[in-house]
Design a protein that fits this description.
Helix content: 55-70%
Distance between the termini: 55 Å
Radius of gyration: 22 Å
Mean pLDDT: 88
Largest sheet: none
Structural class: mainly alpha
C-alpha cells in the first residue's frame, strides 16, 4: 500500500508540470514560422517532430563516430595514451567555426562538442583497456 501512495504522490507532483506543458497543437505566442521559408513550425507538434527526426540522424552519426573512435583506440599503446589534447582542441575550434558559418551559436557547438568528446574519450579508454596486449 505504501508503494501506491508513493506513486500517487509522485504523479500528483508531476501533473501540474504536465498540465503546464503546451500540447502538440499549441500555437506560438509570438513571431511567425521561419524554418524552411516559413513552411514549417506552425504548431509545437511540427517543431517536436522535426527535432525528433534530427535527433535520430544525430544518434546515427554518433554511432558512426563511435565506430571510428573504436578504431582509433587500436592505434593507442595503452589507455593512458588515448588523450590527445591538441587534437581535441582543434576539433572543438573547427566545430565552432562551422557552427558560426551555419548560423549556430558557437558557444552551443563548443559545449556540445566538449561534452561529446569527453564521453568518447571515456569510451576510447575503455576500448583500449579491454584490448588484448
Amino acid at each position: 500500500m505504501r508503494a501506491s501512495a508513493g506513486v500517487a504522490f509522485a504523479l500528483a507532483l508531476a501533473l501540474p508540470a504536465a498540465a503546464a506543458e503546451p500540447g502538440a497543437d499549441q500555437q506560438a505566442y509570438w513571431g511567425s514560422p521561419s524554418v524552411d521559408g516559413g513552411k514549417c513550425c506552425r504548431t509545437l507538434g511540427e517543431v517536436r517532430a522535426n527535432i525528433d527526426r534530427i535527433d535520430r540522424q544525430i544518434v546515427r552519426l554518433l554511432a558512426e563516430r563511435g565506430q571510428y573512435v573504436h578504431e582509433a583506440a587500436r592505434f593507442k599503446k595503452d589507455p593512458a595514451s588515448v588523450e590527445a589534447p591538441a587534437r581535441a582542441e582543434a576539433v572543438v575550434q573547427r566545430a565552432m567555426r562551422l557552427a558560426a558559418a551555419d548560423g549556430l551559436p558557437p558557444a552551443v557547438a563548443e559545449a556540445t562538442y566538449r561534452a561529446m568528446m569527453r564521453a568518447f574519450l571515456d569510451y576510447e579508454r575503455s576500448v583500449a583497456a579491454a584490448a588484448p596486449r
